[in-house]
Amino acid sequence: MSFILRPSSRAILCSTQIIKRQAHKKANIQVKLNQFVEGVGLQGEVVTVRPGLMRNILYPAGKATYIVKQQQNEAIDNTVADEAEKNAANLEHLAQIELKKKELLGHLEGVRQLEFNRAVVPNSDHTFGSVTAEDLMSKLREEFGLDVDKSTIEVKSEGGRIKSLGKHQVFVQIGQETAEINVVVHPVV
Q1: How far apart are CA 137 and CA 153, in angstroms?
Q2: What's the CA gap between 131 and 66, in Å, rounded?
Q3: Which residues belong to any copy of the Ribosomal protein L9 domain (predicted)?
Q4: pLDDT for 126-172, tens place per residue?
Q5: Of 159, 176, 178, 180, residue with least CA distance to 114
Q6: Comparing 104 with 23, which gets the higher pLDDT?
Q7: Count of CB atoms situated within 10 Å of the CB of 26
Q8: Most buried of 30, 118, 143, 161 (most Cβ within 10 A)?
Q9: Which of 127, 110, 99, 108 is nearest to 172 (CA)?
Q10: DSSP string spanning the chain?
Q11: Maximum average pLDDT range among 6-15, 65-74, 158-167
Q12: Model confidence at 188, in pLDDT bands (50, 70, 90)?
């Protein structure tokens, strides 16, 4: 980049105008790599590089070859085909995940009630120990064989814990759907 000082005829005072010039940058070109080049790509890949890198480093060392326009179109077609295969695999994977979510949701619908025993504070219905999302997660795993992430369990009470005796509602969020489970806390006898 260079600067040019030119006198300005518009100003009343004698001032100079600074003009910034930039060198013309050539467009990137696509080349095929003959071997692995660190920071550029793997052997056999078609990559886009600056023409100076190709002319001064890659081509003289035999690390890359220029691509003829017809080969360039074929390379683009191959790349599009590879991406289509990857997208199909991703869609299949997402379908499997969705199926597992629906299966888990169906099993959770079958779980109507979980029971816990806690020590009670004398003359009240409050418990010494609370029922947390971790307790619910371990109970679902032990009794029903269901693996549920504790972040998907939502307890509708203060602090996300059940701290009193009785029946409470807990919601488990699986994807866009929600399963409702009743939790009953009994006093320890």
Answers
A1: 8
A2: 67
A3: 29-73
A4: 888 889 889 999 999 998 888 888 888 888 877 788 999 989 989 88
A5: 180
A6: 104
A7: 9
A8: 118
A9: 108
A10: -EEEEEE-SSSSS--EEEEEE-PPPPPPEEEEESS-BTTTB-TT-EEEE-HHHIIIIIHHHTSEEE--HHHHHHHHHHHHHHHHHHHHHHHHHHHHHHHHHHHHHHHHHH--EEEEEE-B-TTSSEEEEEE-HHHHHHHHHHHH-----GGGEEE-SGGGSEEESEEEEEEEEETTEEEEEEEEEEE--
A11: 158-167
A12: confident
C-alpha closest to that of 156 among 128, 133, 138, 135? 133
Amino acid (1-letter code) at residue 112: R
CB 164 within 8 A of CB 125: yes
| Residue 181 token pair | 């489970």
177 and 107 in contact (C-beta within 8 Å)? Answer: no
Residues in a beta bridge with 184? 115, 167
Query: CA–CA separation, 139 vs 187, rounded Å?
Result: 18
Which pTM value belongs to this model?
0.51
pLDDT tens digits, 80-139: 777 788 888 888 888 888 888 888 888 888 888 899 999 998 888 888 888 988 999 999
Q: What does the alpha-carbon distance between residue 48 and residue 124 come to, in Å, rounded to a whole number?
A: 73
